[in-house]
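Subject: mismatched residue count in predicted assembly?

I count 740 residues in my input, but I want to confirm that the predicted structure covers every chain. Input:
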Amino acid sequence: MSSVKETTVTMTIDGQDVTVPKSYTVLQAARLVGINIPHLCYHPELAREGSCRVCLVEVEGARSLAASCVYPVSEGMKVRTNTPAVRETRRTVVELMLANHPEDCLFCVKNQHCELQEIAADLGVRKVRFRGDKREAQKDEANPSIVRDPQKCILCTRCVRACSERQGLDIFSSVNRGFNSIVEPAFGLGLDEVACSYCGQCTTVCPTAALTEKDDTQLVWDALADPGKFVAVQTAPSVRIGLGEEFGLKSGGIVTGKMVAALRRFGFDRVFDTDFAADLTIMEEGHELLHRVANGGVMPMMTSCSPGWINFVETTHPEMIPHLSTAKSPQGMFGAAVKTYFAERENIDPSKIVSVSVMPCTAKKWEAKRPQLCDSGYRDVDIVITTRELARMIKQTGIDFMNLPEEEFDNPMGISSGAGQIFGATGGVMEAALRTAYEVYTGRTLDNLDFLDVRGLAGIKEASVDMGDGLVLKVAVAHTLRNAEKLIGKIKSGEADYHFIEIMACPGGCLGGGGQPYPTDAEIRQSRIDAIYRADASMKYRKSHENPAIIELYDTWMGKPLGERAHHLLHTHFTPWGGRLK
Amino acid sequence: MGEKFTESEMARLDELLADLGSQKGTLIPILQKAQDIFGYLPREVLIRISEKTGTPLSRVYGVVTFYAQFHLNPRGRNIVRSCQGTACHVRGAKAILSELKKQLGLEGDETTTKDLRFTLETVACIGCCGLAPVIMVNDETHGRLVPDSVKGILEQYS
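Triage response: the counts match. Full output below for your records.
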């Protein structure tokens, strides 16, 4: 960094002097003096837009009020954020938005999570002086993952930017003009008709209920209320990391035991752990990798746990299908095993089992509906809800979540290793696979289980592991589809000679998934990552192949990894998904 | 949709895209020239433009829908513009417009006749208020109209 003088400016905000980097906006500078300027289109991780006009402030010498989210700071600038004109204008701006907005906050899925609602309350909007027309546009509910309700859209374009900047998919655009303006996919098509990955990142940035997860909570209540059903639930590694945030816990708090207790009180017959199935995924995927290496299979092999990524490959890059590991995702493996292995073991009629999963992910809802996922002879996973939906269900019951006792998962599909737990973080699947692949291949015990090169929030990470006898395993890890696209480019150009690549569609991995609590930013993702590795470090077993429940499953029932039964139940295939507009 | 335009039209589009497709800031000229070729901007054409320019399809669609000059549906051989400006309004433009719709057999939001003979549009002001109420057909202006004059005017255009 060059001298402080050149790179910073000193300015005054509401009478307080503050020195900030030259690159800051007024909104960022205000935060440093403890003032949160209300905003809707601005999002700290997305390009700046300046379209909503809620963040207006007075800048001395400026002709009119300025949008602080795009207004650059300058030396000696004097800003006032709390004058009668600022307060009145902000309130008017919000009133004008509300004039076109459905007045159904009480019944809205985003009630108490809506940024528009919060800002209206903060600014003291007590009535709307204007009566505007409401947009007459149909909800898009045709896909299993995401609901788009244009009536709730305030045209902030956060979704447009998130989809473009994070995922490179550019599903949404501002369309038409004036009152007819709408944010929608090309030709007003449904999300199932365009190359949407269902990752749900748009739902994590939407300030209102214009983009939300498809709510499947009632299906779970119905199953639980049916005395003829045996209802088993699995919970993904990232759910226990995020769920506490919905109940006032700081991000990074782990609520595994309370979550299990809550689910048991709902009336689930068994509360199981997707981490168990993650260990199973590592057994199959790790052996598949070694098999490909030994037999000259298609390289690099790429992970297939992230359904947003799978959707992206099948839709946009079908030529990469041979690279995908045929191992099912943990959710898929769990679903197949619960209606076969578990049903047989406990002598339960599999047709009576309802298999529910709680996932940090909207695309998992789509994955569960894939025609491939019925290898048990039934639908392997019947209902998928997100972390946010689970939180809503807990609130419906009145359970005092934070004061619940800590309870344990049920056996046998509740026993897991730290390797299964770290699936939730970008690089986690890779690290878990390396722990097992190394020991299986070399027959030696790893001195250090922590593969630090593949941890953290860098977009693309690389590592190599000396497996002995001349084999150096080269691996790469990417999160977000934009980074995945970069890696695909490197593979195609021959620039990359990796053996194994892990891809997660969402930033930070599943812990930053499209079904996780609001809000999610880099800091929150990092604290969730820290929590995941903390959990891993405290586990009794930290390698998938040492999980006794996994060993028992293979010894007593499944046979060998990649064996006949495993091939039938734990592996899948992928097919190009044509006919969707890119 | 595919049969509505010819191979030679598509070849002209590809030529245009080979010429301009890789340059920045050329989306609007490309769309204008493509519309000159096809008369409107069919979906397949927008897809081709998106592929060759690398501009996401949603963004191409956003630009097309923003500007009134671009059309997503086939247009008639003759464009009828019915003036809705203040002067025309007070001198009965509404009655002229409804007679135009009746004569052209257009219902609801329809703008183009099935035989593609006419497209009917409204405009805010043509700029010859002295002739109110007024319509334009292609480049010709017809003024001081009463509903009964509409049929005879339309018959002049095939």
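The mean pLDDT of chain B is 93. Marking this ticket as 'not a bug'.
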